[in-house]
Amino acid sequence: MNTRILFVKRPVGWVDESCFAIEQGPEPVAGPQDVLVQALYLSTDPYLRGRMNDGPSYAPGFTLGQPVVSRVVGRVIASNNTGFAVGDYVWGFLDWAERVVAPRGEGLHKIDPSLGPVSLAISALGMPGLTAWVGMMELGKPAPGDTVFISSAAGTVGQLAGQFAKRAGARVVGSAGADHKVAYVLEKCGFDAAFNYKEHDTGEALRELCPRGVDVYFDNVGGTTLEAALGHANVGARFPVCGMISAYNLTEDRGIRNLQMLLSKRITMTGFIVGDHVHKLPAYQARVAPWFARGETVFAEDIVPGIERAPATLIGMFNGEAIGKRLVQVAEDSGR
Ligand SMILES: NC(=O)c1ccc[n+]([C@@H]2O[C@H](COP(=O)([O-])OP(=O)(O)OC[C@H]3O[C@@H](n4cnc5c(N)ncnc54)[C@H](OP(=O)(O)O)[C@@H]3O)[C@@H](O)[C@H]2O)c1
């Protein structure tokens, strides 16, 4: 039997496990031109919360009664398509299922296992990594002498954005929701300073840790963290707006109180979606894969085994359980 995770209820406020159902279905069969994929890793991402709503989002909403869909790494186990061979590692936007058919192989991308563990294709060497690159390097434009502040600093995007800014010569300060996350970004990622925003007031921490103000704020969380960053911005600061996870599970829009700082400090605040930059992925991979191989850039994955634990793993990501990329391991494979 083929285990699948269905989306069965739209959450109001915080997503919980009642929004999902585990289903045992028949084994899928590849038709003409189709590719059958054994899932290895499912990605849990903050933006999946937006896809659970009924309203508009930048990604298509989930259909009730249908499987959850996210980025998945898998291995081809049957192919009627000349573009894919049995044994190929691939990633694509696929159903949360042990095995899934990709009709005509559309939407599947081959993974080069020589670049690193295949799971990196949906984390540090994939779209989340490109998110950090585009947001930090193209919009944040950190330079030597700049102070860069990053929220969710121990997360998937945050830890990479911080290391990219360090390579560019900036001073990097991060916030995270647990002491062991603060220790991780200081000791492993080379951040210059970091604080636990659950234990310290963000405004006070920025006053202490960014005495020359903030030149780049890489926003992953929005809310009161963004308000504090606005309050400590220097003239001409850049604010790449990557995400606002603090609002994703709220039922009311709480607003941002001190947006007048945009004017007085001439701040450039730019929202971006990585999907608009997908053509840059090969160049990004070619640039950064050697950094990972040489150990100059580090990346943490938090891999939870068992497809039946996927809903709890996704919810735990929102609760801040993980350092780095939260993946669900569906099957053992030697691609690591
Ligand atoms: N623009 C794009 O194209 C794009 C692409 C990918 C991701 N994103 C966005 O980038 C952000 C980070 O994504 P990611 O995949 O790297 O996730 P992540 O940071 O690996 O994981 C989410 C983290 O968010 C933190 N968090 C949860 N609730 C919070 C709150 N109320 N206040 C502050 N922090 C909170 C938690 O860490 P703590 O323990 O530190 O609280 C949690 O571990 C998200 O907002 C996401 O939507 C945008």
SSE map:
Blueprint: E1 2-7, E2 20-25, E3 35-43, H1 48-51, E4 66-67, E5 69-79, E6 89-95, E7 99-102, E8 109-110, H2 127-140, E9 147-150, H3 156-167, E10 171-176, H4 179-187, E11 193-196, H5 202-209, E12 214-218, H6 223-231, E13 233-241, H7 260-264, E14 268-271, H8 281-293, E15 301-305, H9 310-318, E16 325-329
Parallel strand pairs: 9-10, 9-12, 10-11, 12-13, 13-14, 15-16
Antiparallel strand pairs: 1-2, 1-4, 3-5, 3-7, 3-16, 5-6, 6-8
The protein binds NADP nicotinamide-adenine-dinucleotide phosphate.
What features would you describe in this structure?
The protein is 25% helix and 26% strand. With 336 residues, it is an alpha/beta fold. The chain folds into two domains: 2-122 and 300-329, Alpha-Beta Complex (Quinone Oxidoreductase, Chain A, domain 1), CATH 3.90.180.10; 127-275, NAD(P)-binding Rossmann-like Domain (Rossmann fold, 3-Layer(aba) Sandwich), CATH 3.40.50.720. The strands form three sheets. Strands 3, 5, 6, 7, 8, 15 and 16 form a seven-stranded mixed sheet that branches. Strand 9 (147-150), helix 3 (156-167) and strand 10 form a beta-alpha-beta unit. Helix 2 crosses helix 3. The longest helix has 14 residues, at 127-140. The protein starts with a strand and ends in a 7-residue tail after the last strand. 47% of the residues are buried. The mean pLDDT is 96. The structure holds NADP nicotinamide-adenine-dinucleotide phosphate. The site of NADP nicotinamide-adenine-dinucleotide phosphate (NAP) has 29 residues, from helix 2, helix 3 and helix 9.
